[in-house]
């Protein structure tokens, strides 16, 4: 006799959107690990006004399967990256139905985007630089984590190193604007879809 098996709902699909102009590549591994506390980070994108991918980003993008979103001809201006990320985030929500986001940025210009998505019922995990992220952006997010509170990421594999034992990761703390530790709740799950890869042109 076959027993009834409990149906486990799929984890929510999370879009990780990184402002590469203001976030260092060394924290990308930690960001992905933090995003996994919200759901399945199948969409991983970095936005930056680069004419070519910098050397310090190239290995990171390949190792963590992060897509560089760019224009064919990089526009000039300090807000080019911000506008590209905002437009893409809105497309992911309104066109593709993504409702869980991990926004990695330290710019107050993203505050309006966060409030818009939250009014529509989205969950926003924010991650930003310790000294430069404004309180307005931190308060707007469902939960916010400063980069100095992220767990250490595993080192990238190299040809000269062999496998070694990993030290246990310290317990993560999530900050809230009032100084208290905020907890991430279990949110409604949505079915996963295919992940992105390689460099993508944003038009």
List the topology elements.
Blueprint: E1 13-19, H1 28-35, E2 40-47, H2 55-63, E3 67-70, H3 80-94, E4 100-104, H4 111-119, E5 123-128, H5 135-140, E6 143-146, E7 200-201
Parallel strand pairs: 1-2, 1-4, 2-3, 3-7, 4-5, 5-6
What is the C-alpha radius of gyration, as a whole number of Å? Answer: 18 Å
What structural class is derived from the secondary structure elements?
Answer: alpha/beta
Helix count?
5
Helical content band? 10-25%
Physical arrangement of strands within the biggest beta sheet: 6-5-4-1-2-3-7
CATH superfamily of the domain at 13-152: 5'-nuclease
CATH topology of the domain at 13-152: the name is Rossmann fold
**CATH C-level label of the domain at 13-152:** Alpha Beta
Low-confidence stretches: 159-173, 175-203
The whole-number mean of residue pLDDT values reads 77
Q: Total strand count, please?
A: 7
Describe the protein in words.
Strands 6-5-4-1-2-3-7 form a 7-stranded parallel sheet, sandwiched between helices. With 203 residues, the protein is an alpha/beta fold. It is globular. 23% of the residues lie in helices and 18% in strands. The model is unreliable at 159-173 and 175-203 (pLDDT under 50). Strand 4 (100-104), helix 4 and strand 5 form a beta-alpha-beta unit.
């Amino acid at each position: 006799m076959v027993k009834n098996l409990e149906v486990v709902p799929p984890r929510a699909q999370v879009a990780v959107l990184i402002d590469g102009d203001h976030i260092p590549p060394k924290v990308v591994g930690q960001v992905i690990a933090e995003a996994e506390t919200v759901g399945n980070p199948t969409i991983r994108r970095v936005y930056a006004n680069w004419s070519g991918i910098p050397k310090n980003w190239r290995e990171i993008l390949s190792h963590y399967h992060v897509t560089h979103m760019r224009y064919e001809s990089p526009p000039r201006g300090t807000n080019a990256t911000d506008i590209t990320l905002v437009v893409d985030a809105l497309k992911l929500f309104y066109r593709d139905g993504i409702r869980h986001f991990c926004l990695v940025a330290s710019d107050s210009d993203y505050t309006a985007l966060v409030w818009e998505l939250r009014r529509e019922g989205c969950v926003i995990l924010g991650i930003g630089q310790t000294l430069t992220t404004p309180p307005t952006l931190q308060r707007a997010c469902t939960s916010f984590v400063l980069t100095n509170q992220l767990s250490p990421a595993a080192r990238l594999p190299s040809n000269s190193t062999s496998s070694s034992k990993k030290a246990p990761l310290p317990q993560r703390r999530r900050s809230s604007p009032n100084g208290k530790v905020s907890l991430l709740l279990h949110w409604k799950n949505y079915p996963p879809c295919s992940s992105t890869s390689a460099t993508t042109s944003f038009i």
